[in-house]
Amino acid sequence: MRQVPSALAAQLSGGVTTLCHGWRVTRRDGLQLGFTDHDRDLEIDGLAFLAASGVAGSESVSTQGLAVSGAEVSGALSAATLTEADLAAGRFDGAEVDHLLIDWSAPENHMLLRRAILGEVRREGGAFTAELRALTDALNQTRGRLFGALCDADLGDARCGVDLTAPAHHAEVNVVAVEGPLRLVVSGLAGHADGAFSHGRLAFSAGPNAGVSLEVRSHLRESGADILELWQRPPETVMAGDAAQVTAGCDKRFSSCRARFANGVNFRGHPHMPGNDFLLTIAVPGEGGYDGGSLS
Fold it and tell me: Please, what CATH class does the domain formed by 167-254 belong to?
């Protein structure tokens, strides 16, 4: 059973309440931000809870059992608090959010109502709406390994063993032209085969997107020019001259692992496991030892 601090309990039992809500956001890089729906800033445990962002919470739905409950918070994007670029770059993905009940007349009187994980964030017209997922959402995540034909390791990790710092799998590039938010013409890949960096990763090292890493959808060579098509729009506008590092990708197939990376011994899939097509195959008389006669 939750224990209400004695000072806050005394305030709640009075005839007049001075309550507001606060949200303490802890990003995965350790940065903490505070927000409140009160009309002035508050300070709790040395952290400023800002009112200028206009953050407000929706109704919260609680359920019994292990069903995932949640709520939403919304507010204005602000350079002093939340920026559209930070949200687009994924810096708040998976952040931990503490929802507090606060006595604004004495902010030291507060209590934790619930703890959640920041889920989907929507941005529109200079405002944001963020989904708060209960901690039970972690029970929906896959744990352990799943049997499948494709490899379940990430290229270059400890289970894979491929050295992504090798010149064959790594390159320094510069943006030559921008043909769209997801299509970049780059230089520096002349010594690599067409498609070598498909499914790889592009990490900007200079320019407005410095420090941002994005997945590469495909690497194409058209009329002698190398083109990288991205899965996700960079948070800032990409300009000609921006520098980046690109690392190779893998389509997770055994044939690619063996022929391209000479790493078949570390393949982490099950390429010879029968799939759904095999399970749905109709037995044909005369094949597989069955002659169409009686099985008795």
Answer: mainly beta
